[in-house]
Write a structure and sequence with these properties.
Elements: H1 2-19, H2 26-44, H3 58-61, H4 66-75, H5 91-103
Amino acid sequence: MKVYRQAVILAALLLICTTAVASPDVKRQAQLEHLLAQDCGACHGLRMTGGLGPELTRAALAGKSRDSLIATVTQGRPGTAMPGWGPLLSPGDIRWLVDLLLQGYPAP
């Protein structure tokens, strides 16, 4: 029974460690905000109101799951101009960007 208990605790710790994603520090957040404005804004519009890519305003993203948005940013959209940012950004960076968009970037 003791070995089973230790195995359960170890599995729980491993799950926590693999799913925990650190938020970027303040300096990195500024870099990511610049990337959002310049790189994402090139297709989605400087105010995220759409262009070559769809609108990414708070209203446009309402009802879309955070996980699906993270997957889109990470993997891109095959057959479109949307690249996958996973090779260039950490999971924490991508989560932070998605959360920023869901909160309403840019602020009115």
